[in-house]
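User: Please predict structures.

Assistant: First:
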Amino acid sequence: MRKITVFIALLWLTRLTPGISQEIHDAAQQGHLDKIKTILANHPEYIEIQDQAGRRSLHFAANSGHIEIVKYLLSKGADIHAKTKANTTVLHYAALKGSLEIVKLLVEKGVEIDIKNVQVTTPMYYAASGGHREVVQYLIDKGAKVDALDREEGTPLHFAAKNGHTKTIEVLIEMGADVNIKNSSGQTPYHAAITSGHNETAEILAIKGASTQAWEFPTLQGDYLGQNKPGSTPELFAPGIISTSERNERDVSFTSDGNEFYFTLWGNNQPWNIMVMQRNHNRWTEPQRVSFSGQYLDAEAYFTPDGQKIFFISNRPKHGTGNPGTWEIWHAERNDSGWSEPILLGSPFEGGFYTTFTDDWVMYFTLNDDLHRARYINGKFEESEKLGNNVNTSEGEYNAFIARDESYIIFTSVGLSDSYGEGDLYISFRKDEDTWTQAKNMGPQVNSFARDYCPSVSPDGKYFFFSSRRYGTEDIFWVDAKIIEELKPDELKKGE
């Protein structure tokens, strides 16, 4: 397994706004104090100017360890408690860099030690993950929680072990960390070291008292992998089991009886694979690749209404074996052994992706950055039709989920003026005359500063699933599907 670094959660935050903001941010990042003084002398208001991620010059200086610039910016009134759009503080960035001087300065000035950002991680998480043992020791001395569980995936000791930081591990244990503490999936720091390939680190943990008993996949029983059901606020789906900080997960699809769960997984040197979990005697199996996935890149699995075919996209060659080709729509059919060999959907759907279906076998999909649908008549799909301007715009629309009764469509659009981030989820409702309401942004209750996409609703209609990069990697979230009804226009509600 690829070593996890603290940079995963922040790598995507790289773009800067143009002009003077980029100049001052670059100066803070590169340590050019004189340039910062010149800029602020002419434009003092730029001290709090933000880039697209909400980062200020103070964040950049802390991220690069430039203590003199941090001191200067604070002397000029920079907000020491400033947060990015991801609620990441200056202390998070200083801990990420491992700059003990800046960490001390910030803590002594009253910055909250255990504050969590949108990724649900504390400064201690960044320090431990990066192996900055002096910062770790200082934060603990000042009251940081040594066994705080970040994202339900682990404590600082888990993340230090996952990255093979033996010296940091020794400090954490000396400072009272529980060597056998378990995360939400039942893994201890010893397991984290083993699964990440850090056997020497695991040996140190064993010497320090860690149990060497092998990790067993947790017992998951009940609907939806036995997870606690969400309310009106989106939550990670199966954190530490499905949604993790070290890999990317997306594309949720349940069979109609709820006994099979499919999703796309990639990361840690693993290509895009379609994974499946099955419920046998009310117990869910560990995720494994479906029989037709693994040799090429595969994603976006979704079932036909009868559950006998599974549609997906793949870059496998169109004719037999050979080098990968372009992404195309394929499907496999159920048989006695599981699934047949994949079959190319072909003309006229070349270049399409993200298929979903109504109960009447109307297929919705993306083609050329617009949303289309195709009816299934007499055993074949008819020529597709592009949805109207209330759904498709001059910007890109993609990855649409269609309600089983075709009453609404949820999709992602990029670049619209009411966007909250890199890509937002929108919803449009179908009228009696087969037209669509003006697509509406699903709002901050669902959308974030990052990319939100890959919508799906459970077969029973109770839960809305989607993928998001708000935590840095792609993760699967779910929320009570009542939010869909709340977004329905009043004129449509009156007719119910």
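Second:
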Amino acid sequence: MVEFRRGAEGELVERLLAEGRRLWVVSDSTVAHLYGGPLVGALQARGGDAHLVSFPAGERHKTLRALDAVAWQCLQVGASREDLVVALGGGVTGDLAGLLAATLLRGVRWAQVPTTLLAQVDSSVGGKVAVNHALGKNLLGAFYPPEWAWLDAAYLDTLPPRQLAAGCAELVKHALLGDVALLEDLEALARAPRVASALSPSLLRRGVAVKAAVVSRDERERGERVTLNLGHTLGHALEAASRDLLHGEAVALGLCFALERSVARGLPPADAARAVALLRALGLPTDWRAALSAESLDFLRRDKKRSGEQLTFVVLTALGAPALERVGVEDLCDAARAAALRPPPF
């Protein structure tokens, strides 16, 4: 169940108190200060058995070591299988708290309260939880859906512009996959004087609907759900090799590569150019050539979705019409290197 709100902190407190059990509110150090402490304080003031569990902020802390540290905090106090883990934060927090819930005492209930745009429109929906490994992103994880997700657009008011832009990459991806009319709304969003205020619950609902529909038909990623990886194959590799790229920025770069590849498979060049222009207008990077490196290609070779020497790569044959192509890992690396030598077509 996904709830869409704006400025509904009081309703969230009531929702959590209605659980009637111990609550573990998991946040990174930044969100713990902004929202975690006040939420736990409000719950405790109402008699709730609530505890704040925090870990250092940043993608580099999405590790087994951090998972062990947050589990230690819960187990020291006396966690039980009746407890509820509440992931309050961005995508890193959702992934880490979700894996905590999946493994703590062999599984406890959990809920998502995402505070970033990227988490609200993508990672909070679908039930994938994971931590990173030195050899790549999200290599250790599980499918473990939350009981519910609470998407409050008011959290986005405190996000830096770069974080807002990063979340828009996933909205663009969803529009390209299954809601072409959403592209027009996102083009209008890019022209808005203040993006955070223009992100209404209805717009979030539109973005989430595409992913939710696909996940409902293929929860374990055995078929159609693979299309949600549009832009992520190269994107994950670029992100893993970088010390600076945000996840949404890496996805934007991966989308640009996928759009170029899609033109050879039927996508009209004007449609590809429109999508790239939208990413750029939203403040996202589009020059994947500048980010490509030998290290990123090594991460591409270790993509967790590879099967033998092949990968399933997602392309578009038209806007709203994704297709899957099987391609050799080395063939894809060669194609990326060759394309990087040519000027951008859009």
